Amino acid sequence: MKLKLKPAPPKKLKKTTLKRFLIKRTIYYALPNVFFNFIIAYASFQELGYTHFFSGTQNLARLTLPMAVFLPVVLTIDIINRVIIASEQGAIEFTVDDQLDKKKLMTKLSILHGVITGLLVFSLLFFAQFRLSKYYKLDAAAMAVLVGVLAGILSVIFVYLPVWRLRRHLYKRVAVVSDADGY
After folding, report:
1. Nearest residue to 162 via CA among 93, 99, 116, 124
2. What is the average pLDDT score of the chain?
């Protein structure tokens, strides 16, 4: 006997506009990401008192590169999924094209966003390392703030960027008015 568990149906969403929906999601994503990434970085860097870009046990790249790759991937998948669910429930004023392969779009965009953001952050760290002397020590508190700010910026960008790409497949709902007289 196989035990089959059905996933719980999505919670019914309140009627809203896409703009308000995205603002609410931005707040839900940005604030915790800023706070937790700052706390994790601050606790990690305080062990040494200072940090470097790539060298040492607690370096800046060790925290920022995984965040720069995985945060866009997770946020892209989550926000596209939430917009599609809101659209299917009629909670927002848009509907998704029936011909759209949702899983393919989520996969393609999330991988693309993760790779591009990871390469961009890596190149910025590499450029900064190249411009500063190898004996330059980075202040731990300032780097923790930088990691937190980067997490906040990525959270905001990757709430709006996937929806901007999804907008091609979103259509305004139109009310069908039927005339009782047949005219």
Report:
1. 116
2. 83
